[in-house]
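Researcher: I'd like a structural prediction for the single chain below. Treat it as a standalone chain; there are no partners to consider.
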Amino acid sequence: MFKALVLEQEGKVTSSSIQQLDDSRLPEGEVTVAVEYSSLNYKDGLAITGKGRIVRDFPMVPGIDFAGTVIDSSDSNFLKGDKVILTGWGVGENHWGGMAQKARVKASQLVKMPEGMDSRKAMMIGTAGLTAMLCVMALERAGVTADKGDILITGASGGVGSASISLLKELGYNIVAVSGRSENTDFLKNLGAKDVLPRSRFEESARPLDKQLWAGAIDTAGSKILAKVLSEVDYEGTVAACGLAAGFDLPTTVMPFILRGINLQGVDSVMCPLAKRTEAWNRLVKLLPDSYYAAACKEVSLEETAEQAEAITNGQVTGRILIRL
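Model: Treating it as a single chain, here is the predicted structure.
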């Protein structure tokens, strides 16, 4: 038997409950993992509260990431006792996820724990930190070096934003953060932002082109906010876009792209190839300072998760929520 957070749906109403499940309920997969930690991401919050159409098949165990120890494997790449990480691949959406004491998944979806990391730290980073590292790597590939100018980060109080600040600070970049919560200003500056701008400044309708202010940007918001960011990026700058918290539309024109040569680089962590995932995790181990783990994470029990899911969808969560299994 194992404990799990289970989502069920009656009509169009999603409900969640803590249940004790038999191992026979685990879905198909080559590797069974004793989950030690999961985390709460915005997508998880939408799934648990039913505010977003994330889950279509019920019952479902949510949790788009987890870390733990292999307890059974039919794949030679993973042996009993191996420490592993999973992020993405639709787990927690169309395949039972990490908010349970056990998970069974495909071997191809797992990454071996990097040396110098444990399950707790891995989920303090989680999908959000992995996405942040992939965004930083996208800026690097585009030639946005630390000497080019300021980097703007939207949604800076969230998991991706806070990890991005820490990573870019360690790499020597100057960072300007955008947040809708003024009470987080000190938190963001302590992580490494040199300045914090209000989200309202970026919610106004953007002109196609505005004054050039940013060498590059990491955007978690989309919609009007991304359009405003694009209008202010330097000539041949790059925006790494990885989220749609403000909406999936993009009310802009082609002018930033054809008159300033701006690169809009989409960043996806869900189906990211294994080689790139492994590179990102190895870099995260080396780059994230101890101060990130101390400042940017809150630990909760599985029983507290539903309450935290409501909070994260209401924009009331700062940093990362770690779920102890």
